[in-house]
């Protein structure tokens, strides 16, 4: 055998022996794992594609953002019933955590006015005036809500945010805004009240005003800050009005020593240093009390976050990964819970600041977090003379931006039923409390969804000259019916809650037909599902109609629905020939079987 041939033969044998040892499908899982890593850690994509030209833009935007994050974080901490320093702790950690896990390019996380009332209503009654206990409860609440968000994201429950209609969201957000606003007004007026709900806080506010407890200088500072913030927001939105108000109020109090001379309440001196890792210590009884509030916070926070992330994603043409958003939100809350923070959410006020300042990536948030950290390390006494009235004004300004009036008035004009839902949610939050109000909102959202499927629109159809197909005779009185034929449309899935209603409506239409009915044809295109209960009702309906000398047919039923009927054994029972691709074919067959000469029977009628 030639030497070359032996070599080729040995080489071929070696290849045939070694090639199977390399799994052909191995590169695919490796690529999938690679994609998963980049999906769960979007910071890797940011760093891989980060260009030198973005550094200055992100750093300058981060410094601008820092100036806003500090006073806002402290204000929301006070509104949540915690010392101001914990608002800074709850700003640093979430910004870093979201930069690692968050898919959005510039979304800013941190303390939020929509959560402040929830947090305060939960932890203050349990803490009973003990600050350390309140901090531990708030941290546990953040961890619980964060774990719920992570589990929801991993289970791909991002679609849950779509269940909350805008009227219902407007209702509970308006209720939360009013609750927080009433809680912050005493600070702006220069006195304090104690109350665990809206009614008690309102009563304390009115009594304080009636008894002359208003501090004139605090009132001037508070309302001046409020006008500055709202004025710049209205006429110069690119200028940070919050920063100007805080610097002006702090300078005024420092120069004139107003905390001593006029009794102006200022924040306590901030402790030096960064937040420490701590595992919050709470009892099992307290843990159980926090669970319901954690569910409410998770729902509110990732519903708002979903809406905000979609808004900014649409501006840039990016896609929204709602499940990864929820995971990132959960990671931020868990992280801040272990570092002396409290529940956080996305910010509809600070995110636009980052955008307008030129933020390009989440590095902006990291710069903001580093800026706050440097402040706490090197200059914690810089904000010692910041008046509480100014912090109250910041929170009130945020509440005013949350209030939705035009949308509610629009509902009153266009959809009274949704207007009622919105008002019920609003009153539930105001009168019963924030947490019960949130669950009322959830219950109403689900009820509204079920109600529309439970009692959907249904119609008897007839032919209208000059129009294609068959139309609702209640909307077209001129529509013509075919003797002995009932065309019935049901605009919803058929399931256990509405199956009997469907049956009764159909029999009522048959009973009211102007001529004795021979065929009943159900226009089934809007029916997207039939559960086992509804299938049994259809089988019984077929028997009832057959005994009365009528036949039951279906037109335009979708393939997946037919597949379900086949699995139930109902498709063959009803008869394959009883299903028509279109209403027109069903009508033509009826006319042919009963030898009816009906004008327009051969007209082309598309749906």
Q: Spatial order of the strands in the main sheet?
A: 4-3-5-6-7-8
Average pLDDT, rounded to a whole number, is 86
Structural class designation:
mainly alpha
Distance between the termini: 78 Å
Beta-strand percentage range: 5-15%
The general outline is: elongated
Major beta-sheet overview:
6 strands, mixed
Rg on CA atoms, Å? 32 Å
Number of strands: 8
Taking pLDDT < 50 over at least 5 consecutive residues as the criterion, the unreliable ranges are: 1-28, 603-607
Helicity, in percent?
55-70%
In DSSP terms, counting alpha (H) and pi (I) runs of 4 or more, how many helices? 25
Give the gist of this structure.
The chain has 607 residues and is mainly α.
Report what the structure shows:
64% of the residues lie in helices and 5% in strands. Strands 4-3-5-6-7-8 form a 6-stranded mixed beta sheet. The chain has a two-stranded antiparallel sheet with strand order 1-2. Strand 6, helix 22 and strand 7 form a beta-alpha-beta unit. The N terminus and C terminus are likely disordered.
Record keyword descriptors for this entry:
elongated; mainly alpha; two-stranded antiparallel ribbon; 8 strands; 64% helix; 607 residues
Topology:
Layout: H1 3-18, H2 27-40, H3 42-48, H4 53-79, H5 85-101, E1 109-110, H6 113-127, H7 131-154, H8 166-189, H9 198-210, H10 216-235, H11 241-256, H12 258-261, H13 284-316, H14 322-337, E2 345-346, H15 350-356, H16 363-378, H17 388-402, H18 406-414, H19 416-432, H20 434-454, E3 458-463, E4 470-472, E5 485-490, H21 499-511, E6 519-523, H22 532-547, E7 551-555, H23 559-568, H24 570-574, E8 579-580, H25 583-593
Parallel strand pairs: 5-6, 6-7, 7-8
Antiparallel strand pairs: 1-2, 3-4, 3-5
Helix pairs in contact: 2-3, 4-5, 4-15, 4-16, 4-17, 5-14, 5-16, 6-7, 6-8, 6-13, 7-13, 7-14, 8-9, 8-17, 8-19, 8-20, 10-11, 10-17, 13-14, 18-19, 19-20
